[in-house]
Amino acid sequence: MKSSNPYIFLFTLCLTLYWSTNLVAQQAIAVDYEKAKTQLQRERERIFIDALQLSITQATVFHPIYVQFNQEKRVLDDMLISLFISYGSNYHQLNEKVMGDFVKQSEEYQRKELAVRKKYYKIISKAISVETGSQFYEVDDFISTSLRLSVLTGLPFTGRISKEQLGQ
Q1: Which one of 5-14, 65-74, 94-103 scores highest in mean pLDDT?
Q2: Torsion of CA 84, 86, 89, 92, to 10 degrees
């Protein structure tokens, strides 16, 4: 697996551009989000295929499972985007409520993401093998962590913003 992914970078760039543009431009960028999300889905699938090295028989079993998994991940991707757009839209007026809501929503996202990963680990372990299920778990964790890190790296740190607002 590569440590840097151009599609994750593109996705992060789209989020960054969204936060720094006006409404008309944001509507145009929304189309780019859809393209970026679609590309992210394709790249995620390619990474799984490359990493898992499935036989033809295993791939035949894996594919319908992956289609279901991908549908659930798309919902989570939308949740993650919404979370960071909300944070990015409000970071100039951060207060305890905004920061608290961000933490709660982030925890909820991470809880759901882990639940999906565990669910498909069990399904794949039973349908193919525990080894393949474990590899699937690791690859999904890697992709998800890389995406979150990419997005979080572009966000301003709340401690710095709070101090700037207080004039410190």
Answers
A1: 65-74
A2: -90
